[in-house]
Amino acid sequence: MPITKVLAVAPVRDLDAAITWYTSLLGRGPDARPMDSLADWHVNEGAWVQVFHDPGRAGHTALNFAVEDLAAERTVLAGRGIGLGEEVVTDKGARLASVDDPSGNTVTLIENPSV
Question: Quick check: 12 and 44 in contact, CB under 8 A?
């Protein structure tokens, strides 16, 4: 099975609030609104982030984003009004910090020097 893209989907309670929050998180508005209940960001050629209005499933999703410099991303996000939680360092040296979106889905930024 050749896979051409991976789409990370976060079900949300309030689509407008989610679009505003993910716009702040990702630094730009959605790339597409293929239907009234969905917005997506094409974060790179093979990966998209989608928010989908689905109140029954909202708040039960985890999205992990690999970043090159966690400290720099923390500063950028703080300037956009998003505060990452406490940094955790794994036994292999990866650093990560998380924040919940308005629906309670967890977004974790991971800096992994071993990759």
Answer: no
